[in-house]
Amino acid sequence: MAVVKEGNLQAPTRNPVEWKDPDYYNKDSLFNELERVFNLCHGCRRCVSLCNSFPTLFDLVDESETFEVDGVAKNDYWKVVDECYLCDLCYMTKCPYTPPHEWNIDFPHLMLRAKAVKYKQGDVKLRDKILTSTDTVGKIAGLPVISQVVNAVNKQKITRTVLDKVLGVHPEAKLPEYQSNTLRKRLDKLQGIQPEAQPAGRTTGKVALFATCYGNVNEPDIGEDIVAVFEHNNIPVTIAEKEQCCGMPKLELGDLDAVEKAKNANIPVLLKLVNEGWDIITPVPSCALMFKQELPLIFPDDENVIKVGKAIFDPFEYLMIRHKEDKLNTEFSQPLGKVAYHAACHQRVQNIGMTTRQILELIPDTEIKSIERCSGHDGTYAVKTEFHKTAMKIGCPVVNQIKQFEADHYGSDCAMAGHHIENGLDNGQKPEHPMSLLRMAYGI
After folding, report:
1. 280-307 average pLDDT score
2. Which of 172, 337, 373, 382 is the most buried (most CB within 10 A)?
3. Is the preceding peptide bond at 100 cis, omega within 30 degrees of 0?
4. Over the stretch 187-244, which tens digit does the pLDDT of each residue have?
5. How many CB atoms are closer than 10 A to CB 189?
C-alpha cells in the first residue's frame, strides 16, 4: 500500500506545459483535474491569504449544499479561474503538494490550462485582447503628440467613465503613461566606447538590455537608471536590436499561440547576443520570469529557449552576484533615509533571494523595510472594472505598512505594482524604482 506523505520534503519542481496535446483543451478532462485539485485545496486552505482565487473557491464550497467541492456547480469553477493572475506565489511559497509530491499540484499552471481552454472557446472579452496587445497599443499611443493626448485623456473623469462603460476599465485605476521619447531613442549613445568586460561568478561582465514593451514606451527612465548604475560599475551595456512583448500578458489571457509568436520574434535576437557573450537583463520582473521559467516550460525541447533562459538576469540579481566577487562599487554619496521596498511577486518566484533589499542595505544611513505581500496589480487585473476593488483590497496590507513606516521613499521592482500602491496611498507621493534609488545614492 502506497504511503502518502503529508507534505513535500523536497524542493518543488515544474513539469512541462503540455499545451500541444489535444487533451490539454478537452473540457471534461480539465474539469476532472479542477475538481481533483480543488478538493485537495479545500482540505488544506493554506493559500487563503494570497489572491482572490482561494477565497472564491472556499466560499463556493462553504455555501454549497454538501459543504464539499462536489456541491459546487461546475460552471462556477470559472469564477476561481478568473481570479487567478498567475503570480505563482501559491506554488512557490505555500503549497506543500507540488511535484515531486505524488499529488502533483501546480495550481497556477492548472489555471493557465483553464484560461487556454476559455480562449480556445472564444470566451474572451475585446477589452482583454486590447489590454494584452501591448506592442500594438504602445506603438500607437507612443507616437509624438498622440502620447500627450492619450496621457491627458486618461486623466479626464469623463473619458474614464466612457472607458468604464465601453471597455470595462475602472475609472479609478491608474493607467500607464506613454512616452514618445522611448528608451530605445534615449540609448542611442550606447554605441560608443565601452570598458572591457570583467567576468564574475556566473556573469560575463557585459549586459544587453532587453527594453521590454513597458520599459521602452511607458517608463524609459528606469532603463536609463539601469544603464547609469551598470556603467558606474564598469559593466558594458548595449541594448537588444529590437524587442517584442515577452508574452506574459498573452500567457495570462490563455493565448498560447500568441506566446509562441512572441517567442519566435524574441529568441533569435537574444540568442545572437548570448552567443556573442552578452548576459541579458530586463527592467520588468515579469519579463525576466517569462524567459527564465515560463518559456522553458512551454517549449522544453527548444534548446535556444533554454539557452537564453539561462542567460537572463534580474538587474539586482546581477549586481549581487558581482558584489559577492567584490565587483560592486559600494562608494555611495547620498543616504536615502527610510525606504519601503515592495518585493514584486514575479521577482520573488525567481528564487534569487532578496537581492534588491541586500543591495540597498549597503547604502549608509539608509533603513530598508521590505514588504513581501502582493500589491494586487498583475498588469491588467487591477484596471478591470470587475476586479479593481478586489485588487485594491489585496494591496491594502502593503499600503498600510508603508504608511506606518512613514517612508521617505517607496517603490517596487515592478513599476506597475509601484503605481498601484501609489493609488492606494493617495497622498501625492510618487513611487521610485529601486534602481532609481540606487542611482540617487551613487549621486550619478
Report:
1. 96
2. 382
3. yes
4. 877 655 678 899 999 999 999 999 999 999 999 999 999 999 999 999 999 999 888 8
5. 7
Of residues 366, 370, 363, the one with CA closest to residue 338: 366
Residue 123: closest CA among 246, 262, 27: 27
pLDDT of res. 13: 87
364: helix, coil or strand?
coil
pLDDT (0 to 100) of residue 138: 86
* Residue spans of beta strands (DSSP E) within 277-414: 279-281, 312-313, 337-342, 366-371, 409-412
- Above 70 in pLDDT, residue 50? yes
Instruction: Give the whole-number percent of the chain exceeding pLDDT 70.
Output: 97
- Separation between Cα atoms, residue 329 and residue 313, nearest integer Å: 19
| CA 9 to chain centroid | 28
Alpha-carbon separation of residue 60 from 3, 69, 76, 77, 317 (angstroms):
31, 8, 8, 9, 41
Q: What is the dihedral sign for C-alpha 341, 342, 348, 350?
A: negative
Q: What span, in angstroms and rounded, lies between the C-alpha atoms of 105 and 116? A: 18
How confident is the model over 95-151, as pLDDT tens digits? 889 999 889 999 999 999 999 999 999 999 999 899 899 888 888 888 787 888 888
CATH number 2.60.40 is the correct assignment for the domain at 331-442: no
Phi, psi values for residue 280, rounded to 5°: -115, 130
Residues of the chain with pLDDT > 90, as a percent, come to 79
CA dihedral 175, 91, 32, 41 (to 10 degrees): -100
* Inter-residue long-range contacts of 4-9, CB under 8 Å, 24+ positions, other chains counted: 4/102, 4/103, 5/101, 5/102, 6/96, 7/96, 7/97, 7/101, 8/96, 8/97, 8/98, 8/100, 8/101
Q: Is 333 helix (H, G, I), strand (E, B) or coil?
A: coil
What are the residues whose beta carbons fall under 8 Å from the beta carbon of 252, sequence distance 6 or more? Answer: 85, 86, 115, 132, 378, 379, 380
How far apart are the C-alpha atoms of 101 and 262, rounded to whole Å? Answer: 33
The whole-angstrom separation of Cα 133 and Cα 119 is: 15
Could you tell me the sign of the dihedral formed by the alpha carbons of 69, 72, 78, 79, in that order? negative
Q: Within 10 Å of residue 191's Cβ, how many Cβ atoms? A: 9
Q: What pTM, to 2 d.p., does this model score?
A: 0.92
pLDDT category at 305 given cuts 50, 70, 90 is very high
Output the CA torsion 112→113→119→123 (10° steps).
Answer: -90
Mean pLDDT confidence for 333-343: 96
Sequence-separated (6 or more) residues with CB below 8 Å from residue 152? none
Mean pLDDT across the stretch 414-437?
95
